[in-house]
Amino acid sequence: MSYSYENLPKQWIPLAHPEGALYWVHEDRPIYTDAYLCESSTLDEINRFLEELDLIIEAERYELPEGYELVLELSKDEETGERIWSYYFIDHANFTMFWLHEFDPEEIFYGMDVESKAHMHHELQSLYYGHWEAFPHNREVPSKMLDELVGILIHAGVDSLTSPVSTSIYSEEDLHKLLGFVKSLKSNNGNFGYAACVVGRLMSFFAHARFLNFYGQNCARLCRNQSVYETKPQPRSMLMVLSAFLFFAPETHLKGLESIYTDMVICQHMWIKFIGKLQNEWQEFILYATVLLNANVAFLAIPSVDPSSNNDTHTYSRTPSQIASYLSVIAAVGSIITGLLLIRQHRTKKDGAEDVDAFLKRRSHPTRGFETLAIMYSLPYSLLMWAMISFLVAFSLECIVMSSNLYARIPAVFAWVMIGALVVWCVTTGWESDNPVALVELVLSRLKGMPWNKDPSEAAKDETDDDTKSQPWATFWRALPRRKSTGGRSSTLVGSPVETPNPANHSSV
Q1: Where are the beta strands (DSSP E) in 383-446?
Q2: How many domains is the chain built from?
Q3: Res. 277: pLDDT tops 60
Q4: Distance between CA atoms of residues 125 and 445, nearest Å
Q5: What's the burial of 259, exposed, middle or buried (CB within 10 Å: 0-12/13-18/19+)?
Q6: Number of alpha helices (DSSP H) and beta strands (DSSP E) in the chain
Q7: What confidence tens digit (pLDDT) does each residue in 420-433 have?
Q8: Residue 345 included in any domain
Q9: Of the candidates 26, 22, 19, 49, the residue with the CA atom closest to the CA atom of residue 36
Q10: Domain closes at, from 347, 380, 402
Q11: CA-to-CA distance for 372 and 374, rounded, in angstroms?
Q12: What domain range is 17 assigned to?
């Protein structure tokens, strides 16, 4: 009739996290651990660890804050195989954690510039609420904390709806769902641990987002695409000269990539929206390229286009219209293949913030940035445009040049002039810049930056400047993480996605 754990240790109570992980709490003191205490060797080591900390507290005469909590963790060094004792204390009055030993905050901030102690406190708060999520046993959520969380969600939802560059880490739909969940917690805020786990997770995410956005600091980030560092925009490399031959599609994709990865901080829902829009476009381009491919096949089957089909003897000569149609077929097939490959790559790729961050870091070049990735994303559209132009050239050659009928040439020429004028008008008015010759100026500006257009002394000076130029954001700003919660339980990635070590590992005995 009993189904309890076997070999239960004395003075330790086993508990199950809402997600299912096993952890332990001391029956007399507010001490937690996720070490498996049913093993006698592990239990003895945890007890020795606790005795060591008690001796330090007694010898140094430390006064611990009222209501403190202690978390102990055992781990092993992968290189040396030695056992590591890690711990941290929780101070509920100040919403933070502390250690008995000297602590280097670099282990939390990964070398990121910290504006002030108030700025630093946001990340410590994130770790503090991560402790709530990891050890929610018998923890009742104060109504004040629930009200604060409701206010944060409401503000983030309104900001997302009214601003296209909101710094919210969730979309409007997700915020609406989360608000409903949090409101329902008020009627279920008992000592079950579920409410504390949910509130701790959300508060940890929002505290971490405040740290990333320099909340409350003089240089706070108010827009998602706003850099908090005074760095000049990175000039385009000569690789972007190709953009002129790709109908300047890479420029649009490059701006989008730079906007959603400002200061190397990725927002997961914005990436999903960005890549989802691209996938829809690629699917449309594949459909258009398939239609154009069929049109080319039908065009080549016309007897007047292929004179050799009317002769009994085979000839290997091809007309200009046939050659242009062949080029159109090749470009259309290239558009289909690149579109299918890109769709396949991003459908199988995970959209977690950690995975997206790793992907963008691999595709980012120290000097060219995301230029190569932007060019690759523009290939389905650019190849489709070249396929369309080649088909129009083939059709025009057949109607104007190859045709000997004057009555057929005149309407074709007149139609081409009228349609060409309308196309040029559409391109110039639809260009994003107010300058109607911006396209030409952009190409010329790219060509001016070529090495052969520079004075040798200026080129040498530019190379020296590039070597000595410091980029603080590249050195000190690294995408900070949504870490695994204390005790090894992973939490959803919503902000910037590199995994941080367990907070207990920040100090070792």
Answers
A1: none
A2: 2
A3: yes
A4: 48
A5: middle
A6: 16, 8
A7: 899 888 888 776 54
A8: yes
A9: 22
A10: 402
A11: 5
A12: 12-141+189-225+480-506
